[in-house]
Amino acid sequence: GAGVSQSPSNKVTEKGKDVELRCDPISGHTALYWYRQSLGQGLEFLIYFQGNSAPDKSGLPSDRFSAERTGGSVSTLTIQRTQQEDSAVYLCASSLGPRPNTEAFFGQGTRLTVV
Amino acid sequence: TQLLEQSPQFLSIQEGENLTVYCNSSSVFSSLQWYRQEPGEGPVLLVTVVTGGEVKKLKRLTFQFGDARKDSSLHITAAQPGDTGLYLCAGIQGAQKLVFGQGTRLTINP
Lengths: 115, 110
Prior knowledge:
The complex is a heterodimer.
Chain A: E1 5-7, E2 10-13, E3 19-24, E4 31-37, E5 43-50, E6 65-69, E7 75-79, E8 88-95, E9 105-106, E10 110-114
Parallel strand pairs in A: 2-10
Antiparallel strand pairs in A: 1-3, 3-7, 4-5, 4-8, 6-7, 8-9, 8-10
Chain B: E1 5-7, E2 10-14, E3 19-24, E4 31-37, E5 44-49, E6 55-58, E7 61-65, E8 71-76, E9 85-92, E10 98-100, E11 104-109
C-alpha cells in the first residue's frame, strides 16, 4: 500500500540499550511528525520535519532522543540509553505540509517496551 | 501545559444517547481537526474546520469551530457502539506543527 509504514511494529529492549525506530512516509509528503502515546492517552508531540527547514525539536523529552530525516523521505527516531519511562507507542505521520486543510496520515506505530 | 484541552477525558453512555466533546485552547488556530483512533491503529482524520463559526456534519456527527478559532466541539446524535473509540482534536498554528489534545475515550454501551 501507499500509506505510512513504521518498523518494527513491536520492540522489546533492555534498559540502557539504544533503539532505532523507522518511518517511511507517503511519497511526496513534505511534512513528517513523530509523536509518543502512552496507554491510550493523547499524542505527545516529539519532532516535526518540514521540507528542507530545520526540524522543530521542541517536543523531544531529553537529549537521549534524536531524529533525522534523510533525503526528505525516511525518518529514524533514535532513543539512547532507554529507560522504562520510554515505554510507549511511537507514532509517525506525514502530510503535504502545514496548510490548514492538510490531513496527517499515520502509521500503525511502534510499541516500545523497555524492561 | 496542554495547548489543547479536551473534556471530558472519559465518557461512557448508552446506545441512543447524545453527547458532546469539547476542545478548548487559549490560542488561536489556523484550523482544528478531529481524529478518531481505534486500538492498535493510528488516528484517522474525521474533519477539518477552518473558518470561525464553521459547522460541519458527518452523518450523526456535528463539528463546530468557535467564532474566535480557539475551540471546537464534536456532537454525536444517537450514539452507536460503533462510535466507540478515542477522539482527538488537533490544531495547526500558522505554518507550524500539528498539536493534539489529550483525547476523549468514548464508550457506547449496547
